[in-house]
Amino acid sequence: MIDITFYGHSAFMVNIEGKSVLFDPFISPNPLASEIKVEAIKTDYVLISHGHEDHVADAAQIAKQSNAMLVSNFEVATWFSEQGVENFHPMNHGGSKVFDFGKVKYVNAIHSSTLPDGTPGGNPGGFVISHQKGCFYYAGDTALTYDMKLIGEEFDIDFAFMPIGDNFTMGIDDAIKAADFVGTKKIIGMHFDTFPYIEIDLEAAKKTAAKAGKELILLNIGESITI
């Protein structure tokens, strides 16, 4: 069992084996997350899927105040080192690294990636996290891709964080196919409703998922669950 807290958009804190892992912290610029105090967040790791502002906005501050290890692709990790983040680990597609909470594999995503100052952010990705009690997939921002089938062949995925907001990423129909590809029935939705472009009918999305035999978990900002 692991504990998960939603900080809005695609930002989640996951507690694994006594360590905290924060994904894609976009909190302070998000008016929907105004009650979340960034200065109070402490974590052991910050994992960044790609360089867009709505995934990296608070990463440097949180990494510095926590002395956390920031993990991303080579370009993004290097960029953060130039922003004063001293504790960082670069990865690239297909590579794995064992940390003290589990094993991380950086996997393909179909999207774009430019850092807030216009610096190229390399190719976007997602993460597969294997730990003593299970395995999950954080898709990042992505389209549906057949590469996800390889994840299903290699790993036994318990659940997956997947974008469902459409327009810039997968919508719910493609997220359901992605869940089939990676071999899970449990989807934690992300990247929806933050901006007008990605506002969706949440009840309709839940019904679509249920009809396909999937559980779509949509957390409120600040809400925590245990899986």
TrEMBL record:
The keyword Protease does not apply. Pfam families: Lactamase_B_3. InterPro entries: Metallo-B-lactamas (IPR001279), RibonucZ/Hydroxyglut_hydro (IPR036866), UPF0173 (IPR022877), UPF0173_UPF0282_UlaG_hydrolase (IPR050114). Coiled coil: none annotated. Keywords: Hydrolase. Transmembrane segments: none annotated. Residues 8-191 form the Metallo-beta-lactamase domain. One of its GO terms (molecular function) is hydrolase activity. Belongs to the UPF0173 family. This is UPF0173 metal-dependent hydrolase MM239_18580.
